Amino acid sequence: xxxxxxxxxxxxxxxxxxxxxxxxxxxxxxxxxxxxxxxxxxxxxxxxxxxxxxxxxxxxxxxxxxxxxxxxxxxxxxxxxxxxxxxxxxxxxxxxxxxxxxxxxxxxxxxxxxxxxxxxxxxxxxxxxxxxxxxxxxxxxxxxxxxxxxxxxxxxxxxxxxxxxxxxxxxxxxxxxxxxxxxxxxxxxxxxxxxxxxxxxxxxxxxxxxxxxxx
Length: 215
Known about the structure:
The chain is α/β, with parallel strands linked by helices. It has eleven helices and six strands. The protein has helices at about 15-30, 35-45, 50-60, 70-85, 90-95, 110-120, 120-125, 145-150, 165-175, 190-195, 205-215; strands at about 5, 100-105, 130, 160-165, 180, 195-200. A six-stranded parallel sheet has the order 3-2-1-4-5-6, sandwiched between helices.
């Protein structure tokens, strides 16, 4: 059996990826970088904000405008407060989960607390939130997953990771963990290419975890 389930946050617990990346795409277009929502999922989703800034500056050929990140934070906060919901099925999954679980996200603690608070999921994870801001390297490096496992007192080989991005899946595999790829928005073949076990309905997760733990 798995001794720990490590959930990504955005796109796995809270249905935020579509909202935040719609805002992000709009702001990049305002900077003169023509991107679609599909481009965002292709190039940016799953990266830490610092890595996203690097990618933007590569495309711009110069530093991002002063205040860009704060403006993004303000605009996404409005979008999330008005429209954010839990991922379909995750409440039912958490209600039957018997294995200990936590969160390991590319977002910072403030973002996790905000999104989990809006969706009334924070109580499920209080005291068990881990961020790439606490480790040396973000995903696709395994640091945040290994950090979460260490803090929870579980060997990496006994951990399962639930991710929705290829970058996150790669990080989980690099950590020596079994990765379950939630392919609701992300193209399934990209998750499968990273070695993830695919599923499209969150309600399937308890069955898949049980199936894999005895296989």
